[in-house]
């Protein structure tokens, strides 16, 4: 079954870091970019960054420069998103998504999404 | 404030046709494809339109997308109650080493 399975909900204190995993199954993990998108309560979708599972190259949204790190483990088909120096504004549902787009037609073609991981930041 | 501009809300009655606009710039919509997503409460977004006007299998032909210059639109005809959801447009932006940009989302209410 083609799917992305994310790790469970997290509760963190301000200043801490969180690492969320996204395990791919049913397809060749290295064939498609994995993106991370978050959604704060009652708010819209916000792009955080993407990773090329094949070569490990990353792009990050300017807003998260220096705070977010995307990695992957090709041996088990898993992508990771680590966000540091958390504040209450980081309380959100974090999604990973597979991008089947390519440069000539544009990226952002998310045909497969994880169910989301709720990260709550509270003292 | 989102890079792509969508109306916060639209509404229609069953059977009507509604459109949702998405305005961008030359660094995103102007040179890259537009994608549309539908999100029901408590669920992950789902792909509705890809490459400006293509429908994934399983998406009814009541949904159609178009693009002209730096703007795009999603049209929904024969409105049904199950269409009530949030809709997002997105595109790749070539500035700043490249990144994905989303619209702020449009809440569709079926009256």
Q: Would you spell out the secondary-structure blueprint of this structure?
A:
The complex is a heterodimer of chains A (123) and B (111).
Chain A lengths: L2 E4 L3 E3 L5 E8 L7 E7 L5 E7 L6 E3 L7 E6 L4 E6 L8 E8 L10 E4 L3 E5 L2
Parallel strand pairs in A: 2-11
Antiparallel strand pairs in A: 1-3, 3-8, 4-5, 4-9, 5-6, 7-8, 9-10, 9-11
Chain B lengths: L8 E4 L5 E6 L10 E6 L6 E4 L13 E6 L2 E6 L8 E9 L5 E4 L3 E5 L1
Parallel strand pairs in B: 1-9
Antiparallel strand pairs in B: 2-6, 3-4, 3-7, 5-6, 7-8, 7-9
Helical content class of chain A: under 10%
Terminal Cα separation of chain A, in Å?
Answer: 39 Å
| Class per helix and strand makeup of chain A | mainly beta
The succession of helices and strands of chain A, N to C, reads EEEEEEEEEEE
DSSP strand content of chain B: over 45%
Q: Enumerate the spans of chain A where pLDDT stays under 50 for 5 or more consecutive residues.
A: none
Tell me the strand percentage band of chain A.
over 45%
Question: What's the mean pLDDT score of chain B?
Answer: 96
Rg of chain A (CA only): 14 Å
Characterize the largest beta sheet of chain A: strand count, sense, and whether it forms a barrel: 7 strands, mixed
Q: Could you give the order of the helices and strands of chain B?
A: EEEEEEEEE
Count of beta strands of chain A: 11
SS-based structural class of chain B? mainly beta
N-to-C CA distance of chain B = 28 Å
Number of helices of chain A: 0
Counting DSSP H or I runs of 4 or more residues, the number of helices of chain B is 0
Principal-axis shape of chain B equals: globular
Low-confidence stretches of chain B: none
Largest interface: A-B, 25 and 28 residues
Roughly what is the average pLDDT of chain A, rounded to an integer? 96
